[in-house]
Amino acid sequence: MHTLVSLLIGALVGWLAGKIMHSKGGLIRNIILGLVGGALGGWLGGLIGVEPTSWISSILIGIGGSCLLIWLMRKLFK
Fold it and tell me: Residues 69-74: contacts with CB within 8 Å, 24+ apart?
């Protein structure tokens, strides 16, 4: 059950980040983007001392990480 919830939140985070960054991609790409971006955001947040205190802050950190990941991918592969 926890894995399913993580995938759904990852898909939501990836979709929101894609909309913010005007990225094109399908559902699978958004899920992967959301999961990797969430991990990136959590890792970077831990480095600077920002820890999520609720599920809303976790989603916001995930969106930030996903947007950063989209930006990095554009710079690397453009």
Answer: 69/17, 69/33, 69/36, 69/37, 69/40, 70/17, 70/18, 70/21, 70/23, 70/33, 70/37, 71/21
User: Which pTM does this prediction carry?
Assistant: 0.84
DSSP string, 9-39: HHHHHHHHHHHHTT----HHHHHHHHHHHHH
What's the mean pLDDT in 35-62? 86
Residue 37 CB-half CA count within 13 A: 33
**Secondary element (H or E) of residue 51:** none
Q: Report the pLDDT value the prediction gives residue 18, as an integer from 0 to 100.
A: 87
What span, in angstroms and rounded, lies between the C-alpha atoms of 32 and 36? 6
